[in-house]
Every structure is written in structure tokens, then in C-alpha cells.
């Protein structure tokens, strides 16, 4: 029997409204981005100029920009299953409320006096937050996903956006991830994880494109 391959949906068939979009900057915080951080994603630092460019474009067009930070209480009361999956967090070495690690990395163009920082307790920015209600109130029906990590918090946020019927534009060169150690099926490099995650998102979640493509859409308003 011939092998069948599922084809990604054409971008022309996927709705995306740049004039009704919100830019989501996922977890570009010190515990993920800073050198030597507990959950360091080294490739994240290279994203910052591209993310800052998109932040500037979004601001110029009056689009909402939402930054997220994953935060847990110092006593661990809100950890749930996270305590078993992420021992670093469970030990209190990362993502602890009130620490420098959960602040947005200083090179990201976050303006504390005017920008929105959304605290989340799980991978998805929609889980247990008022993000959906906030976006709906501002007339948003499309989300732009940037940040880290591609295959976890970014993907979870994009998937939850789809489930809530937001159109998704996932920015391939403004997201990054880490490698995965062998859990029984082989080891994967960051590049391999990134390529698979982007391919999966293009098939099942939304539109995947690069910063230049998105910038053109935002600048033209198409």
C-alpha cells in the first residue's frame, strides 16, 4: 500500500487579519533567555532583534502586545503536575514569583509602564488566564506567536488559540527551542525539534511564516 502524506493547508486558505491581530511574546524572560539561566534556550537571544522589530510594528499600528511569564508561587502550591515534569521548577530554582528570573529579559523592548505582562501557571497563555476575554474585548481575532519554546509554551498557546477560533500566525524565525534528550526514541537537536514543530504547526494549527513576511502583512494591512 502506498504511503500517504498529509499536506499542509495553503496559507491562502488560512484567515489572518493583520488589522485585528495581537502580538504574543511568549516567555522571553530571564529564566529562559539569560546566559546560564536554569532553562536557558541559547537560541532565544538571537530572536530579540526580530521580536523587537515586530513589537515596534505592532505598536505603530495600535495592535495589542502581550508578554507572558510563567510564574509559580514560592511555596509550590500551584505546581500541580509541573512538580513531576520539571524538577528544576519544583525545587524553587526557576520560575519563582518575585524573582528576577521571571522578569522580561532586559534586551526585549518591554516597557513596564505601558505594556501588559500576563502571568501564566502552565505552558499555554490561555490556560487559567483572562487572555481570551481581553483579546475579544479589543476586537482581536488573530494572534501572532513569538518567543520560547517553540514546541512547548509557544505551541501550546497557538493550539489553544486555534481551539478558541483565533487565527494563528506562528513566526518561524522569531521562535526558538532546545534539544531533547533521549527518552527512548532517540535524541533530538534544537534544529530538529524546531523543524518538526514548525511543520506540525503548519499542518494542524495555523500559518507559519518568517518575520519579513509578517512585517509586510502588518505594513500593508492586507
Q: CATH class, please?
A: Alpha Beta
* Topology order in helix (H) and strand (E) letters: EHHEHHEHEHEHEH
CATH topology title? Rossmann fold
Number of strands: 6
Strand order of the largest sheet: 3-2-1-4-5-6
Alpha-carbon distance between the two ends: 44 Å
Beta-strand level of the residues, as a percent range?
15-25%
* Number of individual domains: 1
Mean pLDDT: 94
**Class based on secondary structure composition and strand pairing:** alpha/beta
Rg for CA atoms = 17 Å
Total helical segments:
8
Q: Please name the fourth-level CATH homologous superfamily.
A: Isochorismatase-like
Protein name: Cysteine hydrolase
Domain Isochorismatase-like: 21-212
InterPro entries: Isochorismatase-like_dom, Isochorismatase-like_hydrls, Isochorismatase-like_sf
GO molecular function: hydrolase activity
Which features would summarize this protein structure in a list?
222 residues, alpha/beta, Rossmann fold, six-stranded parallel beta sheet, 6 strands, Isochorismatase-like_sf, Cysteine hydrolase, hydrolase activity, Isochorismatase-like_dom, hydrolase
In short:
The chain has 222 residues and is α/β, with parallel strands linked by helices. The protein has helices at residues 30-33, 44-60, 82-85, 87-90, 131-137, 150-163, 190-204, 211-220; strands at residues 21-26, 65-70, 116-120, 142-148, 167-176, 207-209.
Amino acid at each position: 500500500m502506498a504511503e500517504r502524506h498529509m499536506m499542509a493547508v495553503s496559507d491562502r486558505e488560512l484567515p489572518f487579519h493583520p488589522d485585528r491581530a495581537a502580538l504574543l511574546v511568549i516567555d522571553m524572560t530571564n529564566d529562559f533567555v539569560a546566559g546560564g539561566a536554569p532553562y536557558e534556550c541559547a537560541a532565544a537571544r538571537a530572536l530579540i532583534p526580530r521580536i523587537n522589530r515586530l513589537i515596534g510594528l505592532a505598536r505603530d499600528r495600535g495592535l495589542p502586545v502581550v508578554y507572558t511569564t510563567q510564574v509559580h508561587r514560592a511555596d509550590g502550591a500551584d505546581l500541580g503536575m509541573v512538580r513531576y515534569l520539571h524538577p528544576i521548577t519544583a525545587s524553587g530554582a526557576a520560575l519563582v514569583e518575585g524573582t528576577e528570573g521571571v522578569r522580561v529579559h532586559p534586551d526585549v523592548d518591554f516597557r513596564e509602564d505601558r505594556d501588559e505582562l500576563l502571568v501564566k501557571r502552565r505552558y499555554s497563555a490561555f490556560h487559567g488566564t483572562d487572555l481570551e476575554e481581553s483579546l475579544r474585548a479589543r476586537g482581536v481575532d488573530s494572534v501572532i506567536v513569538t518567543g520560547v519554546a517553540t514546541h512547548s509554551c509557544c505551541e501550546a498557546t497557538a493550539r489553544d488559540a486555534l481551539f478558541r477560533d483565533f487565527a494563528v500566525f506562528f513566526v518561524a524565525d522569531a521562535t526558538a527551542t532546545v534539544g531533547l534528550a533521549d527518552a527512548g526514541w532517540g535524541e533530538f537537536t534544537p534544529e530538529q525539534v524546531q523543524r518538526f514543530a514548525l511543520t506540525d504547526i503548519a499542518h494542524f494549527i495555523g500559518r507559519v511564516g518568517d518575520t519579513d513576511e509578517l512585517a509586510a502583512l502588518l505594513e500593508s494591512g492586507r
